[in-house]
Design goal:
It comes from Thalassolituus pacificus. The protein is of the alpha+beta class and 461 residues long. It folds into four domains: 92 residues, no CATH class; 103 residues; 94 residues, OB fold (Dihydrolipoamide Acetyltransferase, E2P) (Beta Barrel), CATH 2.40.50; 85 residues. Helix content is 39%, strand content 24%. It contains 14 helices and 18 strands. Strands 4-3-2-1-5 form a five-stranded mixed sheet, with helices on both faces. The protein has a five-stranded mixed barrel with strand order 6-7-8-10-9. α1 packs antiparallel against α3, α6 packs antiparallel against α11 and α11 crosses α12. The relative contact order is 0.08.
Length: 461
């Protein structure tokens, strides 16, 4: 049996689930790990915070799964960790007869998929007979089914209310923590930044605000690359964004922008089955950014610019993968043109999207999109007036020039404006006059992601 790590990544509902699963890869947390090769099944017992371990099982062939934990994410972190361990270390699993709880799960799966035992699957029949002897489920009436569905909805509402209450309490502690830092002095916070933010980030994880927790935990790395005179101003700005996000969610917990910034984005299946209409057209890949995060995940952002005027700004494809999986070969690189459908996440200013379907367009004549008419300052102001917790805005600029000063710092001159660049190193071919440039602007510095050279075409930076 084989289970590629890519499958585990694709099954994960969001990046925070992968991060949580990574913390469970230590086999010491699993007092039982077993497998039945003939049934393509693996199982394990994961010791959680309760007295009894969670019973976790998965089908390696069709990637079905089940876990007894109360998580509302599917698959949960325990299933992801079980499959992750199997992908990297099959020798950790002991070949054995499935225990009763695994056999019962297999039996239910066979019944639901075929309706009856199949004569050409003798092993599945044996498991079914052993597991279900005397335990056939009664046929429920329409009234009983309706009652069962009502109970399920009531439990789901209760779980949602509990989650919202937990988040509300966590955000209250975050705002109190920020006030305490202001009262005792932000200069002192800067000197002891990493341990302090790690403690409040851990509290936010417990409160189920995992995406905000990851952002809080990344604060020391965000400030580390800035000069000392700039760090305090950037710290104040970031703390203010956290407060604005907290207030936005508390006033409208169902707002998709605020929920995504706190809890994480919907997974691909949820978005494709939503009411979001796909946007068709031709797109040009104008930039990408690959970063390794503190939680062990690799963040891969790719920006596509519309060539047919089907939307007003760039679309961002965001992908996450475990760092242990190694470098991934993406099909889209800067300068690639595609034709296809994008589905945008619901937002007041749609940017993040997924590719529903596409094909790469092979063309000799590259079509360069038109630059935005807004200045970087105007574009960032418009973004933060709508989503005040957003750090940067992506922009396509017209004719520009890349320069380097005597201190080896880079500057981009565009429309008579000089923009300082955050890049520490740039390709030699990127220097000089250009037809266009794609940047990410945060109000202080621009990150140069690509330029369009008259001689060399589009160059990734």
């Amino acid at each position: 049996m084989e289970l590629p790590l890519q499958v585990v990544q694709d099954l994960a509902p969001d990046q925070s689930s992968l991060g949580a699963a990574k913390k469970l890869l230590n086999t010491a947390k699993w007092p039982m790990l077993g497998l039945a090769s003939e049934l393509n099944t693996i199982w394990g017992q994961c010791q959680g915070s309760g007295a009894n371990p969670y019973l976790t099982m998965a089908d390696v062939a069709d990637h079905g799964y089940k876990c007894t934990c109360p998580s509302r994410k599917f698959p949960c972190k325990h299933v992801l960790a079980l499959m992750w361990i199997f992908s990297e270390s099959q020798t950790s699993f002991v070949e054995a007869t499935p225990p009763e709880w695994v056999a019962e799960w297999l039996s239910r799966r066979r019944r639901s998929s075929s309706g009856a035992a199949s004569t050409d699957e003798p092993k599945a029949v044996v498991v079914k007979d052993i597991a279900s002897a005397g335990n056939d489920e009664p046929v429920l009436s329409a009234e009983e089914l309706a009652k069962k569905e009502a109970q399920r909805q009531k439990r789901a509402e209760s779980a949602m209310q509990a989650t919202e209450q937990s988040i509300r309490e966590g955000l209250g502690e975050l705002e109190l923590w920020i006030r305490d830092q202001q009262r005792t002095g932000l200069a002192g916070l800067l000197k002891d930044l990493r341990p302090r933010v790690r403690r409040i980030a851990a509290r936010l994880v417990d409160a189920k605000a995992s995406t905000l927790a990851a952002r809080v935990d990344e604060l020391p790395s965000l400030l580390a690359g800035l000069p000392m005179e700039r760090q305090l101003a950037r710290l104040v700005e970031e703390l203010g964004m956290w407060v604005l996000l907290s207030r936005a969610w508390q006033s409208a917990p169902q707002d998709p922008d605020a929920r995504r910034a706190l809890l994480g984005a919907e997974n691909r299946e949820q978005l494709l089955h939503s009411q979001q209409m796909p946007v068709n057209g031709r797109w040009l890949c104008v930039g990408e950014r690959i970063e390794t995060r503190r939680d062990g995940l690799v963040s891969h952002a790719t920006w596509l610019w519309p060539l047919d005027g089907q939307c007003a700004s760039a679309a961002m494809l965001q992908d996450y993968s475990p760092a242990s999986a190694g470098k991934r070969e993406a099909s889209l690189r800067v300068g690639t043109q595609i034709e296809g459908e994008l589905v945008f996440y619901p937002s007041r200013m749609p940017e993040r999207a997924i590719l529903a379907q596409y094909r790469i367009v092979e063309t000799e004549a590259v079509s360069w999109p038109s630059a935005v008419e807004q200045s970087p300052q105007q574009a960032l102001f418009s973004l933060r007036r709508t989503l005040p917790w957003q750090r940067a805005v992506p922009l396509l600029l017209g004719g520009c020039c890349l320069m380097q000063d005597k201190d080896a710092g880079y500057w981009l001159k565009a429309s008579e404006q000089l923009l300082p660049l955050a890049n520490n190193d740039l390709p030699l071919l990127a220097h000089g006059e250009h037809l266009a440039a794609f940047i990410s602007w945060d109000g202080a510095k621009a990150e140069l992601l690509s330029v369009v050279s008259p001689q060399w075409g589009m160059i990734a930076c």
